[in-house]
Write the structure tokens for this entry.
Amino acid sequence: MMSDGPVILTTQMSNGLLTAKLFFARISYTDNFVNPFLEKGIFTMRDPASPSDDSLLLTIRGLLPSLNEQEQKVGQYVLDHPAEVVHLAMTDLGRLCLTSDATISRFCRKVGGHGYVDFKIRLAQELASARVATYDVVQTGDTLTDAVHKVIAADMKALADTLQVLDLTALAHTAKVLFAARRVDIYGSGGAAVAALELQYKLMRVGVRSMAHTDGEMQIMSATLLTAEDAVVAFSHSGKSVDVLSALKAAKERGARTIAITNHPASPIAQAAEIGLCTAAQEALAHGYPLGARVAQLALIDALYTCMALARPEVTEASQMRITEVLFRRQG
């Protein structure tokens, strides 16, 4: 079964322990791991009346760090002034970005266009559908009310944009790999350490042995002990964390399955991994940190956890019951 538009999947486990609603966009149901959910009625699928295409602005944002310096100038100008670019000739855009026509043509091809005219048509269509991927940056002079509204709006936008780019086939593949692993290492440094610890917690609840490592040296040491029976999940918003990349490569050399969760599909960590899952938080900063980055990672973890729990409901329920029983005994 194929679906080119957004799909809504809803489910509720029989004992009420888990109620979930998953929204995914541009899904290809080609994996045997997903089809049984639909056939057995575990997932209910609904196609909206007006399916949407992949967002051009989200694509540009995700690829921006992998472009060269001149192409980045074009990409950043498009992200900052999308409505203006629709009306600009190539020469005018080149003048504003201080780049050549050849650079603009190359940029258009790299983000999936067939040329500048095709690029502007797609951009105009996206703007007309009101899918504008822009965030308000928190500034020093903002009032508390303005700053809070900007932060919450950025979190909401990051969730909506991540929903739009999330690949269900890759998500289902990730679930299979994690279930089959003897042991799962999770690497995340700095801000990504929060996501690494959250995934460890969620994997344990579905009966998967896992360990989060947030120190660079510990990541390397643990990676050298892995085998082909193990798996690694690497978190990095930028996809460029040196420590995480080194540990991921070390795990890969040992034969472990590798999964990357980043915001940029062309980043070094995403390219080094066997499976890539992407968030879509914008690079607008709030005091040096990308707005919406962490909430998007946590939402992706929730989606992965739900996918795994639905795949093995008996195992999940048994695991949760054992956990609850032990915690209850400890309390009294």
